[in-house]
C-alpha cells in the first residue's frame, strides 16, 4: 500500500514557500501567468457586494487582487501560519485605501479542523472559494471531508467556486505532450489531483453544478506543449516566464486539456 504523506509535511512545504517568496505570487505557484489567469476568471464570477471566504488563501495574493477590482468583503484563512503572516504584511503595504483594507481579514485556520464550520457558518458568506487547496489534502476521504465542511459553512443557495487540478486534465495534457515526444510533467509529491469520475457524483449530492469550465486548456497547450516544441531546436528549456505564455493566458480557452478547472457549485436548497 502507498504511504500517504503526512499533512504536517505538506504544511511545512507551504511554510517554507511563504518564507522564501513573501508576498510574491510564487509563494502559491511558480507560474505567474496562470495565477493571473485564475484571478481573471474568478473575478468574473464575483459581483460587487459579495462576502467571500477564501479557503487556503496563502499569502493573500489573489485576495488583494480581487479587492482591487471588486467592492467585496474577504475573509481568507490558511493552515500555514507563515502564509498568514505574509498575507498580513502584504495587506499592510498594499496600495489599497484604508476602507478597502478594512474589508479584508486574514487568519490562521484548518479547513479540516472540527471547529471550522462553527466558526464560519454564522458569517453567512455569499461565496466560498478554494483555489488549488483540496489538492493539498493527501486522501480522497480528507478531500470529501473538506468539501462537506464547505457545504456546511455556506448558507443554502450560495456558491462554492472550486478551482482545482484534476487527474483527467493532467492525463489529457500529458498524452498531448507524449504525442509530440515530450515527457509528462511530474506531479509534486504534496499534490493529489481530484478524480472527476468520483468528484462529480459526490458534488451532485450537495450542490447544483452550474458550470464546469476548463479555463486553462489553451494556456496548458501553449505553455506546456507549444513552448517546448518551439524552444527545442534552440536547445532551450521551457520556462514559466516564457514571453508567449502571457499571450497563451489571454487567448480563449479551447478544449479540455488544462489541469486547472473551475466548478461553480450552488448549495442545494433542501
Ligand atoms: C497551492 S496554495 C494555493 C493558495 C491560494 N489559494 C492561491 O490560489 O494562490 C495551497 C494553500 O492551501 C493551504 N492549505 C492546504 N490545506 C489546507 C487546509 N486544510 N486548511 C487551510 N489551508 C490549507 C496551504 O497552506 C497553501 O497556502
Keywords:
alpha/beta; 43% helix; single chain; seven-stranded mixed beta sheet; globular; Rossmann fold; 270 residues; 7 strands; binds S-adenosylmethionine; 16% strand
Total tally of structural domains: 1
C-alpha geometry = globular
Question: Whole-number radius of gyration?
Answer: 18 Å
Q: Which ligands are bound?
A: S-adenosylmethionine
The major β-sheet equals:
7 strands, mixed
Q: State the share of residues found in helices, binned by percent.
A: 40-55%
**How many distinct helices?**
11
Per CATH, the class reads Alpha Beta
Low-confidence segments: none
Structure report:
With 270 residues, this protein is an alpha/beta fold. The chain has one domain (7-166, 189-217, 257-267): Rossmann fold, CATH 3.40.50.150. 43% of the residues lie in helices and 16% in strands. It contains eleven helices and seven strands. It has helices spanning 7-21, 32-44, 61-69, 81-93, 98-101, 116-120, 140-153, 167-179, 196-204, 217-231, 243-248, and strands at residues 51-55, 73-78, 104-108, 127-131, 159-165, 207-213, 260-267. Strands 3-2-1-4-5-7-6 form a seven-stranded mixed beta sheet. Helix 7 (140-153) links the parallel strand 4 (127-131) and strand 5 (159-165). The chain starts with 6 loop residues before the first helix and ends with a strand. 40% of the residues are buried. Bound molecules: S-adenosylmethionine (SAM).
